[in-house]
């Protein structure tokens, strides 16, 4: 009976670590026709930290980071990122993406994808 909590903790740890790995570059979802009613306002697709497409950045996050940081950046296994831009700038976020930090492995997102994701996260204030 004492082994039961240990087995659950081990299973959760294995799942969390496997969800963060893979080393594959995330691809944004294919363009699909929208089923939503169009808004009268035109949403902005770029933001202050650089020229990036918000939809691409969100897709990168969901495909690469959300398993550990939560679908809404609320934190899960990894820390809460909802206001990470008030703590780290784009270059500092790029360094974390490149080198890793804590349990986060290095190089999960690279190149232009890392630039896009870092700019998007830097705008989270």
TrEMBL record:
Q: Show which residues constitute the signal peptide.
A: 1-21
Q: Which InterPro entries match?
A: Cyt_c-like_dom, Cyt_c-like_dom_sf, Cyt_c_BACSU-c550-type, Cytochro_C551, Cytochrome_c550/c551-like
Which residues hold heme c? 65, 68-69, 104
Q: Where is this region: Disordered?
A: 22-52
Q: Where is the composition biased (Low complexity)?
A: 33-49
Keywords recorded for this protein, A-Z = Electron transport, Heme, Iron, Metal-binding, Signal, Transport
According to the entry, every stretch annotated as the Cytochrome c domain falls at: 52-125
Gene Ontology CC: one annotated term: membrane
What is a GO molecular function of this protein?
electron transfer activity
- Keyword Signal part of the UniProt annotation: yes
The protein's PTM annotation reads: Binds 1 heme c group covalently per subunit.
A Pfam cross-reference name: Cytochrome_CBB3
Q: What's the protein here called?
A: Cytochrome C
